[in-house]
From TrEMBL:
Family that this chain belongs to: Belongs to the class I-like SAM-binding methyltransferase superfamily. C5-methyltransferase family.
A single GO molecular function term of this UniProt record: DNA (cytosine-5-)-methyltransferase activity
Name of the featured protein: Cytosine-specific methyltransferase
Catalysed reactions, as listed in the record: a 2'-deoxycytidine in DNA + S-adenosyl-L-methionine = a 5-methyl-2'-deoxycytidine in DNA + S-adenosyl-L-homocysteine + H(+)
Active site: C82
């Protein structure tokens, strides 16, 4: 048997990034994650991995060596928190120097464990981000990795190009101490109308409906954390998602009010809450008055025969099912992210906003719920494509 590459997932969240590497044939040795519920999810799905629940800054060099130094880690993955670089963040034009951020912790792991390959994932806007001194953030990141002896390349990858039924662009920085002919995988899929007419080599990317149509049909308030399948798998994607699973986890519909269901029923594909009739407009919190705010991106009904829009951390309020008058379940989001059905998410499905918990001093309740864990993840199929390309050359 050939030796499997050993992978450590830092800032791991639920573990979508490392799951893709496992799918490609690597061995997931461990994870470091600061959120309790995300750690519980990782442990449940990688029972043999060493999962460390800790703020990475609190693990000194000797502790890192004690935990993972004897494992001879080949690949370190990481998605250091990127809120400062996101286009959704209004302050993204004025980020801090990455040398004073959690990126430095990712580098420190590289210095201690000396893996052959380090791969960092982030938002595409990082390419345009500069520090307060005007330096490009990505230039600093590249230079710091090069100082450790790595060849470094970066690229923005589109998830639909690798069979993920979701329009999702992410930046990947690959740093390697072995000679790579190609740092990034070639596309394997395309959206139907963009197929190469001459070579016809690419598969069609699954649509949203391809991804979720076999899941048990639920109305608002229906479903549960464990369910039986009620419909057959009817395409390759669905059959792949079901491999290794006899039951279904995390398929519980939101407990919508009668008024919200009525609002959703008035919306056609492509509509959002702002398109609902006046009498069904959202109300102010704890009030019977109409809200003056109208968020065009909230509660948009998705087209079934297209890839889904990007699944964010708060997607429980972003999308309406193509045919049902409710938001997506956590499992539907997991399918759109390409998590297989055997992968179970721990913790509560949703919690009250982190801002409210902080305001009320309830920080002990501040965890990543199932929806957060799913939305924050690297889609496993996208990670698998990156992994197959790297692992093939490492052999």
């Amino acid at each position: 048997m050939k030796k499997k590459a050993k992978v450590l997932d830092t800032f791991s969240g639920a573990g979508g990034f490392s799951l893709g590497f496992q799918m490609a044939g690597a061995e997931v040795i461990g994870a470091i994650e600061s959120d309790l519920w995300a750690c519980e999810t990782f442990k449940a799905n990688h029972p043999k991995a060493k999962v460390i629940h800790s703020d990475i800054k609190k693990l000194n060099d000797s502790k890192i060596r004690e935990l993972f130094g004897k494992s001879k880690i080949d690949i370190v993955l990481g998605g250091p928190p990127c809120q400062g670089y996101s286009i959704a963040n209004k302050k993204s034009g004025d980020p801090k120097d990455p040398r004073n951020s959690l990126f430095e912790e990712f580098l420190r792991i590289g210095k201690i464990l000396n893996p052959q390959v380090m791969i960092m994932e982030n938002v595409p806007n990082l390419i345009n981000s500069r520090t307060q001194n005007g330096e490009f953030v990505l230039t600093i990141i590249t230079q710091e990795l090069e100082k450790l002896g790595y060849d470094v390349q970066h690229k923005v990858l589109e998830a639909t190009s690798y069979g993920v039924p979701q329009i999702r662009k992410r930046l990947f920085v690959v740093a390697s101490k072995i000679k790579l002919k190609s740092f990034f995988p070639e596309p394997t899929h395309c959206i139907n109308n963009t197929k190469d007419l001459f070579t016809n080599k690419l598969d069609s990317c699954p649509t949203l409906w391809d991804a979720i149509s076999d899941l048990p049909e639920l109305e608002a308030r229906e479903g549960g954390e464990v369910l039986q399948y009620t419909l057959p798998a009817i395409n390759k994607f669905q059959k792949t998602m079901r491999i290794g699973s006899k039951i279904l986890f995390n398929h519980k519909a939101m407990n919508h009010s009668k008024r919200l269901v009525e609002r959703f029923s008035s919306m056609k594909w492509g509509d959002s809450s702002s398109d609902a009739p006046d009498h069904l407009r959202p109300l102010k919190r704890n009030s019977l008055e109409f809200s003056e705010k109208s968020f065009d991106q909230n509660n948009r009904r998705m087209y079934p025969e297209k890839p889904c829009h990007t699944i964010p951390a708060s997607f429980y309020a972003n999308f309406v099912h193509p045919y049902k008058n409710r938001n997506f379940t956590a499992r539907e989001g997991a399918r759109i992210q390409t998590f297989p059905d055997w992968f179970v998410f721990k913790g509560k499905p949703t919690i009250v906003s982190h801002k409210l918990l902080q305001k009320e001093g309830r920080l002990e309740e501040k965890h990543l719920c199932q929806y957060n864990q799913i939305g924050n993840a690297v889609p496993p199929f996208l990670a698998k494509a990156i992994a197959k390309n790297i692992l093939k050359q490492m052999e």
